[in-house]
């Protein structure tokens, strides 16, 4: 079985001591740092932008996994790449020129990912799957941390896993939303290999290190 990759979503971290939270997550064995960018239009919430990516870049060498939930992402790709993003994932919804967006991400030396909202079917990936390094299957509707995992997404993960296997492609499936030690193994069995976790890392009573261990230990 291939090794699971844990991407810590700093949306749930304490912004007053982000550096300490990231360092603790890193020491506990988190693999990537997930940065959720929200503009109040594509999703109702507003979160953070390139300045936060730049601040993270200065304090960690872990890959910065930037998830754009914004209208017109093309306009901001250079800014995120310059800030130090390693991966940039964009939604397939509401993007009439998705190939251009993906090509632009690659031209900026970042690894492109494509994101599907819960209401977007797996087949919509058909025209783009060969172009991306990662497919992010949202397991909640984007916009907020701390929402409940949508178990209906398991079938979609399985379908995308089959699609990727039929292409003999190394494309990774990432899941994001409501990932806990209970839901992580279910998505792993369906084919997910990258797990975004916010609340289940940064908002657990026993602290970040214990929470990361519980997530990592949930697959046997
Ligand atoms: C939701 C974001 C997620 C969010 C996940 O729109 O894309 O990355 O931070 O939070 P949890 O893990 O708390 O569900
Ligand atoms: Zn996210």
Per DSSP E runs of 2 or more residues, the count of β-strands stands at: 8
- CATH domain class name: Alpha Beta
Give me the secondary-structure category: alpha/beta
What's the name of the CATH homologous superfamily?
Aldolase class I
* Overall tally of structural domains: 1
SSE pattern, N- to C-terminal: EHEHEHEHEEHEHEHH
The CATH architecture name reads: Alpha-Beta Barrel
User: Main beta sheet: strand number and arrangement?
Assistant: 8 strands, parallel, barrel
Lateral arrangement of strands in the main beta sheet:
1-2-3-4-5-6-7-8
- Cofactors and ligands present? D-xylitol-5-phosphate, zinc ion
The gyration radius over C-alpha positions equals 16 Å
Strand content: 15-25%
- List unreliable stretches of 5+ residues: none
Terminal CA distance reads: 10 Å
Query: What fold name stands as the CATH topology?
Result: TIM Barrel
Secondary structure tally, helices = 8
- Look at the structure and give the mean pLDDT: 97
Helix content: 25-40%
| Dominant shape | globular
Protein name: Ribulose-phosphate 3-epimerase
Family: Belongs to the ribulose-phosphate 3-epimerase family.
Catalytic activity: D-ribulose 5-phosphate = D-xylulose 5-phosphate
Organism: Longilinea arvoryzae
Short description:
This protein has helices at residues 18-28, 50-59, 77-83, 98-107, 153-166, 184-190, 199-202, 208-216; strands at residues 5-9, 32-38, 64-69, 87-91, 111-116, 134-138, 172-176, 194-197. With 220 residues, the chain is α/β, with parallel strands linked by helices. Strand 2 (32-38), helix 2 (50-59) and strand 3 form a beta-alpha-beta unit.
């Amino acid at each position: 079985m291939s090794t699971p990759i844990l991407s810590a979503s700093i949306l749930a971290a304490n912004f007053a001591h982000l550096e300490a939270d990231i360092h603790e997550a890193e020491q506990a064995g988190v693999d990537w740092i997930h940065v959720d960018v929200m503009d109040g239009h594509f999703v109702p919430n507003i979160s953070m932008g390139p300045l936060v990516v730049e601040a993270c870049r200065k304090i960690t060498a872990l890959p910065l996994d930037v998830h754009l939930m914004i209208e017109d992402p093309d306009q901001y790709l250079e800014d995120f790449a310059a800030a130090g993003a390693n991966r940039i994932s964009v939604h397939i919804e509401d993007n009439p020129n998705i190939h251009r967006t993906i090509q632009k991400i690659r031209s900026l030396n970042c690894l492109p990912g494509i994101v599907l909202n819960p209401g977007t079917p797996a087949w919509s990936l058909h025209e783009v799957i060969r172009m991306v390094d990662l497919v992010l299957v949202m397991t909640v509707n984007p916009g907020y941390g701390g929402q409940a995992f949508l178990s209906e997404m398991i079938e979609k993960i399985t379908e995308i896993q089959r699609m990727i296997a039929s292409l003999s492609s190394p494309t990774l499936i990432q899941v994001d939303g409501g990932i806990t030690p209970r839901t992580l193994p279910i998505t792993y069995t369906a084919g997910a290999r990258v797990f975004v976790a916010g609340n289940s890392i940064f908002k657990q009573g026993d602290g970040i290190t214990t929470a990361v261990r519980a997530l990592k230990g949930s697959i046997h």
